Amino acid sequence: MALATALFRRARAVIPGGVNSPVRSWKAVGGGDPFFVRRGEGAYLEDTEGNRYVDWVMSWGPLVLGHADEEVVEAVQEAAAEGTTFGAPTEREVEVAEEIVDAIPSVEMVRLVSSGTEAAMSAVRLARGFTARDRIIKFAGAYHGHADALLTESPGVPTGASADTILCPYNDVAATAAAVERYGEGLACILVEPVAGNMGVVPPEPGFLAALRGLCDACGALLVFDEVITGFRVARGGAQELYGVRADLTLLGKIVGGGLPLAAFGGRADVMEQLAPSGPVYQAGTLSGNPLATAAALVVLRRLRDPDVYRKLEETGAALEAGLLAPGMTVQRVGGMLTLFFREGPVRNLTEAVASDTERYGAFFRHLLEQGIYVAPSQFEAMFVSTAHGEQEVERTVEAAHALRA
What we know:
Blueprint: H1 2-14, E1 37-41, E2 44-47, E3 52-55, H2 70-82, H3 91-103, E4 109-113, H4 116-131, E5 135-139, H5 159-162, E6 165-168, H6 173-183, E7 187-192, H7 208-219, E8 222-227, H8 238-243, E9 249-252, E10 263-267, H9 269-272, H10 291-303, H11 307-324, E11 330-334, E12 337-341, H12 350-353, H13 358-370, E13 373-374, E14 383-384, H14 391-405
Parallel strand pairs: 3-13, 5-6, 5-7, 7-8, 8-9
Antiparallel strand pairs: 1-2, 2-3, 4-10, 9-10, 11-12, 12-14
Helix pairs in contact: 2-10, 3-10, 6-7, 11-14
């Protein structure tokens, strides 16, 4: 990987850590210098050395139709020829919003933004403005972007910015109820990934999401679902469709942008109408709803109306899960997202997730990479299934995993 090594050396000279997002580093798996991608096609990546890999990362989830889907690429090319950004309303923005509202029953109105971080910080501000309260509850191990109030563990976050952020263990109804009892009168919202995806895939325990709904109703707080990962992945209507619990506000990203930088937050009309310019809670964005991203989004969201897409994701995900199961390890999966934890399960929260054997996971990552299979360079992330993955990619991955154990 001489070219990649040279590129990484150049990158480290001008980019902190040599990468533009920490998760792209291979430090957590002892994998040395990361490869540099030249192109993607279907279920495969090709690096600058010409090596091809079965890709189970899929840009961390957005590429539900696989890399360089022909219809998506054509739509983006046509949109680019008409102009890359206008800073004024376009018809496709309205059409994307209509697709989202049609898919997710709890979303009556929606605002388009450019990233999941932006969606999360805006939704929290809106919840605070609507309720006239300051405190929020989030869950240990969850990641809702890098806004100060939501990233309490990082240096550089002022004490005051996170003073009203209350952490609870994921899947712990009793601890959350105790926090609501203590802080409920000043609680603006409970912010939760309905399926945790940033400590590995951790499904909600039966009754957990319904309990959060009840706690919010009892104290007047809003329930905010972060469906940046699960939205349009575990079902067309997201985890809310899957588990039958409606949120007041919902965050969307990844798949909703069709592989381009687009995210959204939406929910009850009476809450969303508090946003400027119709209300007093300010939020804005120069590139929000930009025409390239909305062109890609429309192609993907319309294709996802077909129930066969989700049947295929489920079948492929189930086959991969069954093939990876082995003694001493746990596979946790919801639809087209899964994590192989190197520990006995189940894994229900951050404490149990971090008990995984990360050295064994690192060896697993390096072995699969040598076999031409790319999985997340961290134990605490997910494998993402796309419609481009099939029996061949599953069999190749399972065979490589079994060879490591032999």
